[in-house]
Amino acid sequence: MPTPFLVELQSRLSDDEQRVLIPYLMTSERGQPIAFEGRHDVRDFIKGKIAQVRSGDTPEDCNTVIISGAPGAGKSSLLRQIQKEMSCDSVNHDVIPIFFEVSKLNDPVQLLEMLLARRRVNFEGLSKSYTQDGKGRINLKLLQSGGGIYSNLPALDTSVRESPGRIWNVIRQSLYPGDDPIFLLLIDEAQRIGPKDGESNTLLTDMHGVANLGGLKIIPVFAGLSDTGHRLKKAGITRPADKDFKLRFLEAEEGISVCRGTFKALHVDKLFMPNDIDTVCMYLDNASDGWPRHLHHYVRYFVDEVLKSHNHGRDQVDLNRVLDLGHDNTIGYYQDRLSETDFKLASLSLNDIAKQSSEQIPITIKTFYDALEGVIDPTNVEPLVHQYVHDGIFDENPDGTYEFPIPSLETFLANDRDVEATKKALQDGLRA
User: Fold this and answer.
1) Cα–chain-centroid distance for residue 264?
2) pLDDT digits over 187-226, tens only?
3) DSSP structural state of residue 375
4) For 287-324, what is each residue's pLDDT tens digit?
5) Residue 294, C-beta contacts closer than 8 angstroms, at least 6 positions apart
6) Structural domains in the chain?
7) Residue 186: left (phi > 0), alpha (psi -120 to 50), or beta?
8) How much is the pTM?
9) Is residue 363 classed as helix, strand or coil in its secondary structure?
């Protein structure tokens, strides 16, 4: 890549167009992307599952779908994209998509309030069932602003707290005669599910026995870190999920399309020659490993440089500077994540494992035992590996081997976490 790599501006943004860039530059990687691409296997499977449930030709034991991936893989964005598609799709007009974090499953009343905050709720029927004289007419839309179920229907609050599984019957009562919707429950942060303890996780385990949920059609979709499947088992789920997806990086054409779609939505693409914008998109996708979290930051740095060029009267955008800022952000992110999860004594061993991986040597549980011999007690090796998987440092493959989910993470560790050496390796990778 030439140094400096300057991209020529062919025109200028209007003042209004420049102002539009400000809120975009303030968005975090956890926000919904302007341009969503990829994950068609998951999206298509969900649509197929909905059609199957609608037809009644579906097993009664489990409709659960698991979506796992390391931090920044785009799990939350994918759930929101599915929610958006199902909300706008006339074919799936009978689908009620509800996005929420797994913590809501710990409070049956909160979950019930979310399930009731939808279109077509039989307010009158529920009011008659749960007001003291049976003649009340409470608009349950007031639940969101008027103190919730506790204030408006205390009898229902008590009933559900004493018997959490009753919420499914309440939801059935909230339907008008003839209604038979499909509840698509999009559950984020699923790695936070706690182990089964007494009557905990009742609502969670209920959702795997769809025949016992008041005749409701429910498809639970859990999105979480790489050990989400194991967490569900510890929570009391005995049957395997209907489908388990692991999110990897975006394909090159998908990452490039995210860049191009974002620039088009922000009117940034019109500032450059088509060949130049294609080159920029290719470099940004390449630098990010196609990892959604990183791609967001590289794209945002480029847009910020465009705005700064306008404000300073420059006719060029320095792509080298954009890539340098993106590399710093990526490396800083790894430093923060590792500082939260690292065992100091095991730190150098993790670097050594990354060097083996970069040489195409498979990582097995024996690799960890060998690398950590004499460093930590052998009984702590497997718990440490499980922690690394939980924190997204490693992915565990179906064959029992392990791998780093993001190439640049492996590069950072293989370079002994040296920032400048890592940046040089990343830059060299772009030139290759």
Assistant:
1) 24
2) 999 888 877 766 666 777 777 655 457 788 889 999 998 8
3) T
4) 999 999 999 999 999 999 999 998 888 889 999 999 99
5) 72, 287, 288, 326, 329, 330, 333, 406, 408
6) 6-35+250-336 (no CATH), 40-246 (3.40.50), 342-431 (1.10.10)
7) beta
8) 0.87
9) strand
